[in-house]
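Crash report, auto-generated. Payload:
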Amino acid sequence: MGIKNINIWYISSLLISIIVAIPIFTVFSSFFETTGNYSSVVRDTFFYSYISNSLTLLIGVLVLTFIIGVSCAYLVSFYKFPGSNFFKWALILSFAVPAYIYAYSLTAFFENYGTAFTILKNLFGDGNYNSQIPKFDGMLGAIISISFSLFGYVYVLTRASFHYQSQNLIELGKNLGFSKKKSFLKIILPSARPAIVAGLSLVAMETLSDFGSVSFFGISTLTTGIYNAWISFDDLALANRLSFYLLIFILGLFVLENLSRKKAQYHSTSKGGFKSKTLTRLYGYKSVLALIFCFTVFFISFLFPVLQMLYWTIIFPKHLADLNLLELFFNTILLVFLSSIVLISLAFISNYGNRVSRSKFLEVLTTFSISGYAIPGIILAVAFITFISWFDNNVINFFGFSTIKSIFIGSIFGLVIVYFVRFYSLASNGIKSGYLKINYSIDESAYLLGYSKFKTFKNIHIPYLKNSMLLIGILIAIEVIKELPITLIMRPFNFETFATQAYIYASQDLLEAAAAPSLFLILIASFFILITSRYILKD
Amino acid sequence: MAKNFLQIDNVTFAASEKNKVNNVTLTIENEGDIVCLLGPSGIGKTTILRTIAGLEKIQSGTISLKNKIISSKKVHIEPEHRNISLAFQDNSLFPHYNVIQNIQFGADRNKKKKKTLTIDEVIEFLHLEHVKDKFPHQISSGEAQRAALARALLSKPDLLLLDEPLSNVDQSFKEEIQVKLKQILTDLKITTIIVTHDSYEAFYLGSKCGIILDSQLKQYDDPYNVYHFPNSIEVVNFLNRGILIPAKVTGENTLENDDLGTIKGNFIKRYPKGSDVQLLLQPEDLEHDDTSNLKLEVVDRKFRGTNFIYTLKTSSELLIPVFVHSHHIHQHEVDEKFGIKRPINIDHIVCF
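Recovered output after restart:
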């Protein structure tokens, strides 16, 4: 029997898990609430198009990210060609470009009299090019935008799996006389399957929760439905009900992803068993093809949106001058800083509480609460507001206190709380994986050397996990910088970040004005990605 | 209130239903005594140490250290407040500190206590000079084990618990470390409980040995008695020190076995004349004599450096081990006949 104490650590961990789980409970409980008139309209008209659009988008994105992600991962993991080392990390820069900014770039380039038109005009003189330039809008535009901004998940996880794939396994294939193609189809791909599925599941969840690009292209999905029900028709109950459907969908994917991850563990090599792979050098046209393929992906996913935004920022200097850059930068960094501090501290305390108490109940609750990452930001924001309103009306009012809504809604405090729920799994899983490397006997040794639980936490765990914390902090920063729907709904009045500023301009059809905040957003995110690329590519 | 240094009264040690040692009563009378616990793997020896250290709770009985109850159903003093040190069998060094820093953690505990042993001395005796600046992942498991031992020793505990402290240590300096460890523990009067599966290590280091078998503390006695006067068939089998052969008590100092004839010696325990008993026959009890008319067939011969162990078969198919000094003038091959000196005299006769 272990030491099962209900102490301060246990209680802290319990409270943190409950806070994170509140929005999930709220969505489920509000399913039975009465909805307004708008709900019958939605049911009769838009509901099936929400579902079918969400599904079409999902399938399109999954197919595209699978092809791009797996192909790139395969090329850089098994072959040596000009630029292969560069593409290894350059391809993850696509993480810096949120789908909605990609959507702005796509439109800006291909729209009538857009950048493509200007290029053609400069090259070939005046002409009716608009009819010849392909249009990437609507569903196609959304699929492309989301795919190129999310394929990184499939790329990173598949590459890691390829990288750690046993060399012996590949040599065995050669020994059995397998051709390269047969080796790929029979050995390499099946053993990377769990990683690919894990990557695709993440893509699926992000796709279903995407708000920025689908709303920009005017596609009605469940996510935009939730937003409209709440913002346009003030029907919170319907918003919650739609959230519930989406949540069921996403929880299914979450379970799939979790199962797949568990299987993935079987593929990891034991310590000392890893043998570095010998890469095959490509020559002639094969090396050129590999180079062209990777460069095209890198160009389309990263250079294209950056150049487009840079181009507009340069040719419309007025918008840049109008922008209060310092304030946007300060606001963005403030949110990054606050959320990182809150997330890392609380995730650390919660993990330590779990470790010290070794309570099964707490473990189950934590696992449940971290499923918050599967919930779209928009649902979390709506659920949080629902909960605060309920609490204010039923509890605060009951005791006759003044309303607390303004403390939580439309405030930085409330915004950080919802970020906390949204990104808690990122922080918690990061710290948990760090903790998995610390044997329990390490803690016990510390106790036996006279260290209290707090001193063990402070003097042994924090120093050991400080690198993990830094890495998690940066990953949170990347997510917070790009985050749109939560920031949009929860932010205080007149409080803008690069993401919201870009969205506001874009939604007013002022794409050229959206260019500068988008560009700065990409640059800051790229900076954080570059300093962590070594860690991202490692696992 | 107990007056012994450590008093364990009727405690059931349980990490799980399977891993359980029931109703243990054990005392360490004096400060500085060394006790060794022996038993097969997975029997619960480590659980006993973890419980004494306060890492596990107990549901019944009491554990008192220096006349103070540290564990009972109602009392549980947290491990950090017990001043008991435990060196784990597996690597429990702090991974982000190097060896010397890890050892320093031990030295930093009980700073106010009189300095009796320096870090340099411990590092030297445990042969850790060459790894002191390395990190735990850069050293071997044996080195990590020695570093953990150094840390535990330097923490000047009231009670030191060592879980298989030398199991991963190279044979080349295991004996040297055993000698020095015993010397240090004795000189500094550090009361110690050592868990080991090596009976020779236990017999050498311990002033008392406890044998744990079948979820019980079967025997707790000084090493000589455990070896020569095992109190149950289970202990005999566990120590693997001989065989039990059927015999009939024929007199005050004699027994009769169908194959070996008359056996003389001093009974540890009296049996009525005519009793059928199981006699413990240890390899050193029989003497080789080529001129004897008692001949047994050699079925195996093991060379053990200082001696050979012959396995001899009697006419009733009993297999009996016999030690012969390895400098013995001639050797017997398998299938040859091997003479046993008669009459057979055993100093102390152990029967069950």
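Post-recovery validation: The first strand of chain A starts at residue 79 and ends at 80.
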